């Protein structure tokens, strides 16, 4: 029997031309499909991050060039952000958001105003006991917070303008009026106009889902309120429910067309009963 010599064994281990060399230290290349997808996905992440940055940043020329309405359409209701995410503090009070509508009865043609409905109570009922509630279930409370933040930087004349009705008159004219009252207060005015657009959308969506089968929703109105947790007193059993809320009034806004898929987001609001 012929025994291979060490030299023959070495020759047998050499890689022939055209063969693929393998080694335990070689790093496998990712699949081609992964290399193709990585750049589009990276572009999506970068664009998303840029839009979020535009939303939370102060008003700038670049943001104005992009268009606040375009940014808002992307942000709400899924990606709403604010700086409190980076410095959360326990809430020492409660904010509330209510809506009502004016509806023309389909049979009689008479127009009637509905009762006020507290949407924050509905959201509380939807998230209670739910370990993974959707972010949209905090939409009205966040909107009320945004409205209150904008109001804090406005003077008495501007606050009075917020209660005016804008039904036939385009609500965009409210911005002009607010700036005429205090032209140096652009930041607060823009914050309010963004929050007003969101609040009007919420009011319209809920009204059309809830009262649309009764007739035509011609206009909507929202209002917000807040109350602070009472100071601790060992001799008192006073709770938050005993505190009278401070109500902020806003004028009527026109009915707007809302896409069916957006209305579907508010179906749970209409189906939820609050004790």
Describe the structure.
- The chain is built from 11 helices and 6 strands.
- It has helices at residues 6-13, 32-56, 61-66, 68-75, 119-127, 139-152, 156-161, 172-181, 186-211, 260-264, 267-271, and strands spanning 93-105, 111-113, 117-118, 215-228, 246-249, 253-254.
- It has 275 residues and is an alpha+beta fold.
- Strands 1, 2, 3, 4, 5 and 6 form a 6-stranded antiparallel sheet that branches.
- Residues 15-23 have low confidence and may be disordered.
What structural keywords apply?
275 residues, 11 helices
Report the count of strand segments.
6
Low-confidence runs:
15-23
Count of individual domains: 2
> What is the rounded Rg?
29 Å
> Looking at the structure, what is the overall shape?
globular
- Average pLDDT, rounded to a whole number, is 81
Report the end-to-end length measured between terminal Cα atoms: 95 Å
Report the helical percentage. 40-55%
**Tally of helical runs:** 11
Percentage beta strand: 5-15%
Give the topology string: H per helix, E per strand: HHHHEEEHHHHHEEEHH
Transmembrane segments: 36-57
Region (Disordered): 1-27
Keywords: Membrane, Transmembrane, Transmembrane helix
Pfam family, one: DUF5819
Helix and strand arrangement:
Blueprint: H1 6-13, H2 32-56, H3 61-66, H4 68-75, E1 93-105, E2 111-113, E3 117-118, H5 119-127, H6 139-152, H7 156-161, H8 172-181, H9 186-211, E4 215-228, E5 246-249, E6 253-254, H10 260-264, H11 267-271
Antiparallel strand pairs: 1-2, 1-3, 1-4, 4-5, 4-6
Helix pairs in contact: 2-4, 6-9, 8-9
